[in-house]
Amino acid sequence: MTTFPSRPSSADIGVYGLGVMGANLARNLARNGFATAVFNRTPARTERLIADHGDGSEGLFVPAGTLDDFVASLTTPRVAIIMVKAGPDTDAVMESLAERMDAGDIIVDCGNSLFTDTIRREAWARERGLHFVGAGVSGGEEGALWGPSIMPGGTPESYDRLGPMFETIAARYRGEPCCAHIGPDGAGHFVKMVHNGIEYADMQVIAEAYDLLRRGLGLDPAAIADVFADWNAGELNSYLIEITADVLRQVDAATGAPLVDLIVDRASQKGTGTWTVQTALDLEVPVTAIAEATFARGASSATAQREAARSLDGSAAPLDIDPADRDAFIEDVRRALFASKIVAYSQGFDEITAGAERHGWDIDKGALARIWRAGCIIRAGFLDDISSAYAADPDLPLLLAADPFAARFQECVPSLRRIVSLAAGAGVPIPVFASCLSYFDQIRADRLPAALIQGQRDFFGSHTYARVDLPGVFHTLWAADGRPEEQWD
Which of 75, 102, 90, 99 minimizes the C-alpha distance to 16? Predict the structure, then answer.
């Protein structure tokens, strides 16, 4: 095992945990002029990083063989980034660092931790005089290396020390860094969680569009790749649309078949989509597009249920689009996809608004949209419009109803209705497309059948109800004919 020399107070920042993400983030920091201490519980990873990139061409690394040396190598106030598995491992590393740190030092969790854990950890660190920052980092391996979107929470004082470094290594959009202080304690990890929920919806509805094009027109993956590439040149411009074309063009070297046809159709997940939906339920915010996308991954992995259902007759007609209607069908799918993406983002920002209100965070949603314009997975052309909408009205009640989205969405609604209708008749599963249309119709309705639900609740549980014509709270003795209504102020 290599023994690294001790170098006290020689590093601007440190990274604990040198898996792919941690190593790439350390390389990004070093390449941008920050002397970076590196440490891993398994020394071989530290040795590998130094052997591969420690010749000075990527900047200065300060390797440490022990945790004591790692902490000692950091200049004060110390900044140590944790890049380990979320959960108990993060707590264990945090506690080990805290034992060796002084008041005013900063521990930064750049993993995908649940925001409520971050709130707890921040309070724990504050009691010990330390700063704890939960920072959402989006962009995957390449983003970590070349410039991610970074969403740090924590105290303003911690951002004074950490922010200049993060803004330097972050992706840039038209010269602006894709990094901003989000708010106290768990705010950074909260918005990263919702970002990932939007990502789930975006990926699922893109997959539904692909499925419709393939079933309806009989196009092969390479031809559908051309359609997505064309879409990426317009208002659907985004990272996910771009990589979809690349994925669909990939051919398996061994068989010559489209690789997408050889991939098992079970979508995995790491939990952030589930957290987004669970949190939305707690906040009573409808994020139906995100929920359906999360459930769709679960359905894809329900092997036994899918096998049992294959014998059932769906009484569906084939989705067979007349060649003469090919271009019109493709345009309908494109418009339906654009409309559904708007719904997913609108619902995500609704959840961010509700979360900020619940936890007392002052989140600048316009700034958040700006730092998602580059580096992150959901970067898309219309984030400029989202940023402008929140700049015009920071208290915007519904992004979907704001300029320029309202007019554009309404132009796309007829296409969305046609696509949902066609898919339903043909038995093609489109959970996100369908939920987006249903959400739109629900949110714009003058009156909903919720009045009946309130009546039912009052009947079996005396839960009371309000009336449209009288003030106060009411209860009816439903089972007693002729009994008068009771009213409470």
Answer: 90
